[in-house]
Design a protein that fits this description.
Rossmann fold, 16 helices, Glycerate_kinase, about 20% strand, Glycerate_kinase_RE-like, alpha/beta, Glycerate kinase, domain 2, transferase, Glycerate kinase
Length: about 400
């Protein structure tokens, strides 16, 4: 415990932001906020940095900052080229935990530079290769974060990398991608790698099929034309039907479950072929980094992400952090690049105030280029209102 400028005893400030996409990682955001607070108050101000993520891009970086070990290996990228991808591991009393981020292996950012998306043939195989690598190196629990995917293959490539065979009518293994699933005739799970449990960390609640499904909602974001979306929808429907018929899992039932459509249907693949459990991304990952222990006794929590908008209010990282802090009666404020929700909506979500880079620099391009120094200035404003007299 320490004394603030009023002379009263107070706990630490907990800085728990998500990334600012395209600008700063979550550990970088936390570092700049901490620097700004200490510059405004005192170098002795106790600040605890806990970068967070909700299962999407940046999840591996966030848990590595909390003490997990980074592991790198070559895997198959979404377009078939080899890419260097990372995951994180930590030994727990009940076994080794591996945190795997789909975007590291199968994300849009893993497409070769200068090439267009390949929505019909993009594969999740590299994600399965990461799971296999972790399992073969002792992981007994796999936490699979979904988001930012380039593929719409229902997790078919992931399953194939783990020993599941997806066969056409002639008994040949299917080529990569969601379009090929239209030719699926049988599934053989007898050779699947086993010996580990899988928890999917995702806040996406889309089903696999239909107008709110993986192809219709997310396919266009991955370069799919309306014609491509119809092809991908047919492939995913075939996958669900054959999975149910062939005993690989109750595929048609799983297809309708919330989260089955996550990451181009990789949620469905994890549920069907890996017997996975889907958990709310930010809540599960906060438990993983023992957030409750850090926030107990804190004077203030500062969270945030690049854009605070309607999607934030639907359960993304800042709202998850606010809910966890509320259990301990600790006030929460947020930092962001920009925001499009009002003060009343923020307070209803447990966030007392939000400070945006655009409040002090209206040029969005400069905000992205100079996000670190601007965050330090925002932290000074937060300190003046919430920490200093």
């Amino acid at each position: 415990m320490s004394r603030d400028r009023t002379g009263t005893t107070a706990g630490p400030v907990v800085v728990a932001p998500d990334k600012f996409r395209g600008s700063l990682t979550s550990p970088e955001v936390a570092a700049h906020v901490a620097a700004g607070l200490r510059s405004a108050v005192s170098e002795r101000l106790p600040v605890v940095r806990i970068p967070v993520a909700d299962g999407g891009d940046g999840t591996v970086e966030a848990v590595v900052a909390d003490g997990f070990t980074r592991v790198e290996t070559q895997v198959t990228g979404p377009a078939g080229a080899r890419v260097l991808a990372a995951y994180a591991v930590r030994d727990e009393p009940d076994g080794r935990v591996a945190v795997i981020e789909l975007a590291e292996a199968s994300g849009l950012r893993r497409l070769p530079e200068g090439t267009a998306p390949v929505p019909l043939t993009a594969t999740s195989r590299g994600t399965g290769e990461l799971v296999a690598h972790a399992a073969r190196h002792g992981a007994t629990r796999i936490v699979l974060g979904l988001g930012g995917s380039a593929c719409t293959d229902g997790g078919a490539g992931m399953a194939q990398a783990l020993g599941v065979r997806l066969l056409d009518a002639a008994g040949h293994d299917l080529p990569p991608g969601g379009a090929a699933l239209r030719d699926l005739d049988a599934i053989d799970v007898s050779g699947r790698l086993r010996g580990f449990e899988v928890v999917v960390a995702s806040d996406v609640d889309n089903p696999l099929l239909g107008p709110y499904g993986a192809a219709a909602v997310y396919g266009p974001q991955k370069g799919a034309t309306p014609e491509d979306v119809a092809v991908l929808e047919a492939g995913l429907a075939r996958l669900a039907a054959v999975a149910a018929r062939g005993g690989a899992g109750s595929g048609t039932d799983v297809a309708g479950r919330p989260g089955a459509g996550a990451a181009g249907g990789v949620g469905f693949g994890a549920l069907t072929f890996l017997d996975a459990e889907i958990r709310p991304g930010i809540g599960y990952l906060l438990d993983l980094v023992d957030f409750d222990r850090h926030v107990a006794g804190a004077r203030l929590v500062i969270t945030g992400e690049g854009s605070i908008d309607e999607q934030t209010l639907r359960g993304k990282a800042p709202v998850g952090v606010a809910a966890a802090a509320a259990r301990h009666g600790v006030p929460v404020v947020a930092v962001c690049g920009r925001r499009s929700v009002g003060d009343e909506e923020l307070r209803a979500a447990g966030i007392q105030a939000a400070y945006a880079l655009t409040d002090i620099e209206p040029d969005v391009r400069r905000c992205m280029a100079e996000a670190g120094p601007l965050l330090e200035r925002l932290a000074g404003r937060i300190a003046a209102r919430f920490i200093t007299p």
